[in-house]
Design goal:
Blueprint lengths: L3 H15 L6 E7 L5 E7 L2 E3 L2 E7 L3 H8 L2 E8 L4 E11 L2 H10 L2 H9 L9 H14 L11 E6 L3 E6 L7 E8 L2 E7 L2
Antiparallel strand pairs: 1-2, 1-5, 3-4, 4-7, 5-6, 6-7, 6-8, 8-9, 9-10
Helix pairs in contact: 4-5
Amino acid sequence: MDDPLALFDAWFAEAKASEPNDPNAMALATADARGQPSARMVLLKGHGPDGFVFYTNREGRKAADLAANPQAALLFHWKSLRRQVRLEGPVSLASDAESDAYFASRSRDSQLGAWASDQSRPLESRATFEARFGEMQARFEGQDLPRPPFWGGYRVAPAVIEFWQDRAHRLHERRVFTRAGDGWTEGMLYP
């Protein structure tokens, strides 16, 4: 397959069929304005020709990193398949309509959690967070929850996509695709 997005779709479909937990889990790496890196796991919630989308609080550390340095790397590791996919590229905000639609699809408790959390900020105790969650339950009782103004999606538009396949004796296969205008160039890397 010479289209990396089609190859990703095929590998992702296999991961959904074989991974026991969260085949859409991906490591997200960002760096702040000083170049200090940070990585954490997030969930892929959409992908297509325009990029790979995840959602989060836009006031937390990853959001601050992306505001200062709108570049990111993503890494999918599907251990059961002995495969990885690595992507790098510029990051943009998902539209309000996309963010609203995804927020509306979340469970009510997940929506309440988004309202209750001051993501990445110090928390004195779990009880404090649980109390805030209770406050949000009372505040929105009997209502549909709107998307918080500080919460939304980000889209990573891949400039580079690498597919890594485990092989015997560490003779792994690494295919790398690099964006070239409206298409892609393909190469291989030593393992």
